[in-house]
Fold this sequence. Notes:
The complex is a heterodimer. By secondary structure, chain A is mainly α. Helix content of chain A is about 40%, strand content about 5%. Chain A has two helices and one strand; from the N terminus they run H-H-E. By secondary structure, chain B is of the alpha+beta class. Chain B contains 17 helices and eleven strands. Strand 1 (about 65) of chain A pairs antiparallel with strand 11 of chain B, so a sheet runs across the interface.
Amino acid sequence: MARKKASTKKKVTPLILTRFERARLIGARALQLSMGAKPQIEVTGSIDPIDIATLELKENVIPLEVKRKSEK
Amino acid sequence: MDIKKVTSVVKKKKADFPESLIHEITDASERHELKAKELELLVDEIKKEYERAGVENGEAVGTVAAQSVGEPGTQMTMRTFHYAGVAELNVTLGLPRLIEIVDARKKISTPTMTIYFEENYGTDEEFVRKIANQIGKIVFNDVLKDFNVNYADMSMTVEIDEEKVKEKRLEYDSIIAKIEKAFKKVVINKNLLSFEPTISESKHAIRELRLLADKVHDLQISGVKNIGKVVISKEDVEWVIHTEGSNLGAVLKMEGVDKTRTTTNDIHEIEKILGIEAARNSIIHEAQSTMEEQGLTVDVRHIMLVADMMTSDGTVKSIGRHGISGEKASVLARASFEETGKHLLRASIRGEIDYLTGIIENIIIGQPIPLGTGSVGVIMKARD
């Protein structure tokens, strides 16, 4: 019985974030910022970590990604 | 644009649409007379919207369903009304009925069947009436003209009314046969029957005579098991029978009965005779009609989720501690539901381990729930 070679291409699911993933990413990034991480965007206006994290997500520069459970 | 063409386009686009949606697309394409290219564009757009409309991963569907079914429940009446539908027949309605459905009660308070007949038979009133008399419970007393109990002589005589026997389309001889089978000491003289009680002690003579009288009075001479009163009514062009009591197995075997439409409200009977998928459909149908009858609309998806949970293991399970809630793997979950002491004691004697993978246990100990936001795994992006 020949074994199927594992695909070397990384599996990517649709790029739209669910609202839970969005909330989690913003929360995790805001926590990092509050503990002294360097913001990836120019901070003008609000200095609230959650607001900064939200802006970062909009610009897609958050250094975090969601690990989705792959469908078999 | 016929349905086959639409189905092939849908398949080509790899869209997993349900049948009803494909029907709708076909209707729309016929109404607007779409060309092939336009149909493909349409399917593309629908596919995009369909995928957008889906429930997101991690959504607390169970809680939403429970609330969606429970909230209208607070607006339902607790009292049951009489004559729901056909006059003379009582059917349980409203909240008590919903509780029966969700508890998967084996014995329900008002089982009832609706019997439809096949094309030629359904319009024939005589035929339907005959079947109704065959199915409905008829006792000996219903065909008697006279019923005499003489306590002085310790004897009992009855007179059969031939008119009534004919009215009910019964066979005289089969009645006599049933009497002879049920009672030992009976003397038959044309239409007059006299019974003699077996008296063991003269003290209880009167009571024994009374018991014998009751037995003769209530002897069932016609009818299917478990079925009581039977009512015929005309719906549009055909005649339909509604019964008090339910015996789907026996009725489906009868000639002339439309096997595709005849139904009962007893979910366990449907599970036994027609299978688990039919039982699932029956749960959805019964729950929906109970809500609708009270004037409440609940999206069918919530009810479908409840029905799926109840039937996904192959048998109809109740929601409570004898069914789903009682089968949870977590000790804390079961203990927090009902019978707290029992579960905690048993678990500690057995040395059970709670792996804290479910919702309830994580709430109890104060950890994030494996649902919604807590179901998301976050990792640092690789530096490239």
